[in-house]
Amino acid sequence: MRLFKTLLCFSLLFLGINIVANAQNQTQIKYLSGTDKDNMVAWDFYCSNGMQSGKWTKIGVPSCWELQGFGNYNYGRDYKIPKAYHDEHGLYKFKFNVPTDWKDRQIKIVFEGVMTDAEVKINGKSAGAKHQGAFYEFKYNITKLLKFGTENLLEVKVNKMSSNASINSAERNTDFWIFGGIYRPVYLEILPKEHIERVAIDAKANGAITAEVFTSSKKVAKAQIELQDLNGNKVQELNTANYIEEEKLILSAKAENIKTWNAEKPNLYQLKIDVLDKKGKTLHTITKRVGFRTIEVRESDGIYVNGNKIKFKGVNRHSFHPESGRTTSKALSIEHVKMMKDMNMNAVRMSHYPPDVHFLDVCDSLGLFVLDELCTWHTPYLDTDVGKKLIKELVVRDVNHPSILIWDNGNETGWNLELDDEFAKWDIQKREVIHPWNSFKKMNTMHYPDYYKFAFDAPVKDKIYFPTEFLHGLYDGGHGSGLDDYWKQIWHMPLAAGGFLWVFADEGVVRTDKHRSIDVDGNHAPDGIVGPYGEKEGSYFTIKEVWSPIYIADRYIREDFSGEFQVENRYHFTNLNECKMIAKWVSFNGPNGTVDSKVLSENQVKLPDLSPGAKGSFSVYKPENWQAADALFLTATDIHGMEIFTWSYPVKTAKQINSTNISFTNTSDIKVLKSEDAITVNVDDKEFRFSQRTGLLKAVIKNGIKIPLKDGPVFLGNKTDLENVVVNTLENKVEIIGLYKKRKKYYDWKENNEMTQDFFKWTVHSNGLLDLNVELRNQKIVEGYMGITFSFPEEDVKGMKWLGDGPYRVWRNRMKGTRFQVWENDYNNTVTGESGWVYPEFKGFFSSLNWMRLYSKSSNGFTVYCHSDLIFLRMLTPDQPAEPKRGATVSNFPKGDISFVKNIPAMGTKFMPASSSGPQGSVKHYFGNVDEPIEINLTFEF
User: Fold this and answer.
1) Which helix (H) or strand (E) holds 347?
2) How far apart are CA 570 and CA 70, in angstroms?
3) Which CATH class is domain 313-546?
4) Which CATH code for domain 550-637?
5) What local confidence, expressed as pLDDT, does residue 1 receive?
6) Can you list the residues of the chain whose pLDDT is less than 70?
7) CATH code that applies to domain 670-941
8) What is the model's pLDDT at position 17?
9) Residue 253 φ/ψ, nearest 5 degrees
10) Which helix H or strand E contains 545, and what residues bound it?
11) CA-to-CA distance for 454 and 469, rounded, in angstroms?
């Protein structure tokens, strides 16, 4: 027993020595600040001017001080604002303890990001040169400045405005919010004295690994690497070759049977790196995540990853949160990347500065291709020395992320040509450098191309077309509006490599000085696909469908439906049969149903064996009663279980669906009273009043309560005058018919002079239902609306429930992304991106109307059944945004408030009218010949 205890003690002692030894060989991290926007640590703080200035108080770190109630807000463009307003500085103090057992270690203090100039002191002594540049990580060796075993004082002076004019021009005279403060975490890095300074890794798709291990220690003799999984388990032994070159070791090895990294299958490994002395003793051990992938930019061809040509479906993204500014969190990074992936995006551009490290980590792990960017906006770092320093900080921090494929040397003329070659000095992978907005070397990245001009420029038609910004969002414009047209062209152009929408989210800040209202600085920042808090606009779902990697050719279901769909695999690395699809045949209840829908049949769809880029077909199972269904839903999910999209296909016509919802059973007597001004029809508990002169509905009264639908149908697109109003009293119904003057068929004028006549007919049934039948003739090409409209006071609208496409409104060039089913929206008065941020917006155009129930504040409202196919419901008139620029609004809504139309307008972008964004944006509508009149058949139930 005594021997056992002795052996146990020796064993524990030995184990303890090993634990201590291993700890001594590792890097330790001690945070002085919090870790993110949701986990801050209070530091002492003094602000020089603006809010809460001139006194010592507390502030949470990391943070942007404006969002904590200090200083002054500033949306870029400092030259337009008096210097005294935005040139504040902040003083920070924080005390921390350093244990005595760190004496034999090297201690560095790391700042992940400070806006803008930072002067750091430890115990009253300077830690090093002032750091300038707001978006870059920097660190100081403070070992000799520390007091071990006792308290230490950290002091930081932060100037919001840099003393370097070049940095101010590049980073502050911008089209984005400018903040001040220590806005990213601060921590101590505790290292062995003999340690690795940094590593740069190149892991190729074929398994070849090259690593540069930088160390200033003369004791380091060699290094070795081990491939692990992300849990630290060894995957395989690596035979490592070493080559020493000045202050770095160059390692090479070959991994076998690895899984490559790409945006669809982001396979990651961990590389364990040990540096050893001449006796083989381990001095320092670190681990780095790696993804095996190879990037090639082939001139006059395309951008390839692992040998596959890529179409980038990307978006620009600011590092931003409305309540914390540039201070974010890993949780927010995950949320944003998941939303991008949900939109079927595969790429993101960092605009216009390097993001938080955790955002790149998430891009690595969830799978997004990244363009990482040096921060400039129109003006470069003209101070070349400063530019070189910042490029080093950018590349050294981010070099090992497999998600990063390309470096951006600034934005929109913000490139200093002398800096282009600096990236390669620090990048072992020698990734391509581009000039966003310009034609440079292999790529033409021109921004905001007109659909009819883009990629056809003769001087650069041999370059890869790669717009790093296109379809500039503003309010409800851009993004989804025009994307279908653009993408059809980009997808089929061999030299087009895709592009990046501007921008992911509205950059709206919660103003602590304005009662916590959200400020988007006029029309400068409401450019997002989502709102400040991630609220999804309609374009979100349009993008999701247009960029679906499973492309299903448009089709309609008719009585001879074969069950077959044409499909194209638009993945780059995934076979279509790796995805799943479910087919559901559904029926819908009417407006009074407590349950909206019922699944009649649900079956798995066998997707074909289609490699990336291949086309084929698949079939859905048709149950015996398939024609009893109202719609077919196809829901596809990817290899990670995420929904790709749900496509919906009406099976029945609107008339067929509504035939089960309404009945014309005779129940009551009808009384008709004519006066000089009105035709009054009384039936059951309802009274209908029509104009004797025009035949328009003037009033509906039920049980003595007025339902304020009136003044319709006013014709839209009709160019003839009303000729006559006829009243027919028939058995169990009354008809009021409005006849318009006849006009000649334009193509028969020289032949038989045949005449056509537009009309509307009201039919009041004995059970209180009110039918409206309309016929409209037209020319082949129409630039206005074709349909009918009514008046209804907006202030009386409470909400609506409908069967049709939804839940979002549509524009002519943003029809995709909806689903045909029963929806219900409460009234809101959101102006997209400007106010409210309540989505879906209530007001606008809604496609494929079958029926709609309007909820009224003053009455029971009404239900209207639409028996005609492909009719748009216009629900009220959206308020116009204050500054829509060139095209990001639609102002020519139909007269009245509630309309039923056959055509709707398109939506433009911040910089282009809709007509410049493709055929779907045309103001002209092609209706065909006049011998097929437009029919709109409705039934109103009050």
Assistant:
1) strand 347-350
2) 50
3) alpha beta
4) 2.60.40
5) 38
6) 1-23, 78-79, 82-85, 455-456, 745-755, 929-930
7) 2.70.98.10
8) 32
9) -160, 170
10) helix 538-546
11) 12
Report the 3 state secondary structure along 854-875. Answer: EEECCCCCEEEEECCCCCEEEE
pLDDT given for residue 12 in this prediction: 33
**Cα gap 54→364, rounded to integer Å:** 44
Cα 651 → chain centroid = 32
3-class state of residue 665 by DSSP: coil
Rounded Cα gap, residues 851 and 832, in angstroms: 26
The domains of the chain are located at: 25-192, 198-290, 313-546, 550-637, 670-941
Q: Phi first, then psi: give them for residue 734, nearest 5 degrees.
A: -130, 135
Cβ-proximal residues to 411 (8 Å cutoff; 6+ apart), any chain: 351, 352, 373, 376, 377, 378, 436, 437
| Cα angle value 346/350/356 (rounded, 5°) | 105
Nearest-5° angle of CA 404, CA 322, CA 808? Answer: 85
Q: How far apart are CA 364 and CA 359, in angstroms?
A: 9
**Cα–Cα distance, 680 to 387 (Å, whole number):** 80
What is the CATH number assigned to the segment(s) 25-192? 2.60.120.260
Tell me how crowded residue 229 is: count the other CB atoms within 10 A of its CB.
Answer: 11
How many Å from the N-terminal Cα to the C-terminal Cα in the chain?
94
Instruction: From residue 600, give the alpha-carbon distance in Å to each of 466, 588, 851.
Output: 46, 10, 21
Q: pLDDT by residue (tens digit) across 266-294?
A: 999 999 999 999 999 999 999 999 999 99
Eight-class DSSP state of 888: S
**Per-residue model confidence (pLDDT) at position 2:** 39
- What would the two tokens of residue 69 be? 């109630």
Element (H, E) at 22: helix 2-25
| CATH number of this structure's domain 198-290 | 2.60.40.10
pLDDT in tens, 483-526: 999 999 999 999 999 999 999 999 999 998 999 999 999 999 99
Tokens of 178: 């400018």
25-192 and 670-941: identical CATH topology: no
Q: Which residues of 28-46 are buried (b: 16+ CB within 10 A; e: fewer)?
A: eeebbbbbbbeebbebebb
The reported pLDDT for the residue numbered 780 is 80
**∠ CA 334-838-854, rounded to 5°:** 135
- Placement of tokens 């070397």 in the chain: 441
Beta-sheet pairing, 631-637 with 643-650: antiparallel
pLDDT for res 382: 92
Does the pTM surpass 0.85? The reply is yes
